[in-house]
Write a structure and sequence with these properties.
single chain; alpha/beta; 10 helices; about 45% helix; elongated; disordered N terminus; disordered C terminus
């Protein structure tokens, strides 16, 4: 691992994250192999102590303290750790793991030690100007991240609503009852007066099940309405993002839901040119690791990214 170009000026660090343990890898300029330090998951005090000790060691070796650059893959810990490190003067890169290059011909053993080494090699290459080694995720502010909550939860509830509607339709259809628009008629649907296809009332246990399913559907509908009001009316300090959202809604065919996703997930980023925007939009057509990272077991975040990474 060639670190001669950055020796003494940058201390390269990588962090492999898991729920229970973290593995910190530090590439010292005077050592050919990285030094590895296990850390209990979430123990930021121990992490900072090891980073500070490593910087002090390099300062004694080279006569000046290096800047620390640390990277980790987007995952369950999402962005809070990056903001924590940046607040303490450490540059942090959050990497979209789906963008990392892999050898498709070789068998790929996977251990934390191997993953840390791969991150360190990628970090050194990226800092030397190789922007093809991976994609770096833009780290949102706390307010920008919080602004996404309303439409992401609504998206989750819309899927849940569809499941309840299909469940009710299936239970009715199995009894020969057709032609009921459950989404529109659930409030006025009188289950006790429904008649099966062979002319009998719905059995009592089945009727009770349908009533409970309707109650769950009603609750989800109420929560969706609350989230839509929160999405559209709750004040936010992200004025630039909301200005873009208001402008988008002047276009035909774009309503509150699409404009919220576009501005809060996409247009809060900065694209240098049309080519970068085109590359970003292509990425959204395939699921990425960022979306498998932090919400509902990471299904829609980060990341979760049906919404992608930069």
């Amino acid at each position: 691992m060639d670190t001669s170009t950055a020796a003494g000026s940058i201390l390269h660090c990588a962090l492999e994250l898991s729920k229970n343990t973290w593995l910190l890898g530090i590439q010292f300029p005077d050592r050919p192999q990285p030094s590895l330090y296990p850390i209990k998951g979430g123990n930021t005090e121990d992490l900072m102590a090891k980073l500070t000790a490593a910087r002090d060691r390099c300062a004694k070796l080279n006569g000046r303290a290096p800047s620390i650059v640390l990277c980790y893959e987007a995952g369950y810990d999402a962005f809070w750790l990056a903001r924590f490190l940046k607040a303490r003067g450490i540059e942090c890169l959050v990497v979209d793991s789906a963008s990392m290059q892999v050898n498709r011909r070789a068998r790929r053993p996977k251990t934390d030690r191997i993953d840390v080494g791969k991150l360190l090699r990628g970090l050194i290459a990226w800092l030397q100007g190789d922007r093809h080694v991976w994609s770096v995720v833009r780290i949102p502010s706390v307010d920008e991240e919080d602004l996404r909550r309303s439409h992401r939860e609504r998206d989750y509830l819309v899927h849940e609503r569809t499941a309840h509607i299909n469940r009710i339709k299936g239970l009715l259809f199995a009894q020969g009852i057709r032609g009921i628009n459950v989404k529109r008629q659930y409030k006025t649907l009188n289950v006790d007066k429904l008649v099966t296809g062979d002319g009998h009332p719905i059995p009592p246990r089945l009727a009770s099940e349908i009533v409970r399913e309707i109650a769950r559907l009603a609750l989800v509908q109420e929560q969706i309405a609350t989230l839509e009001r929160e999405r559209d009316e709750r004040p936010t300090p992200c004025t630039a993002t909301e200005k873009k959202r208001a402008q988008l809604m002047y276009l035909n065919g774009i309503g509150p839901a699409i404009s919220a996703v576009m501005t809060r997930e996409v247009y809060y980023r900065q694209f240098d040119n049309r080519g970068r925007w085109q590359a970003f939009s292509v990425l959204q057509r395939a699921p990425t690791t960022v979306e498998r990272s932090s919400d509902h077991k990471g299904s829609r975040e980060l990341g979760g990214v049906k919404y992608g990474a930069q």
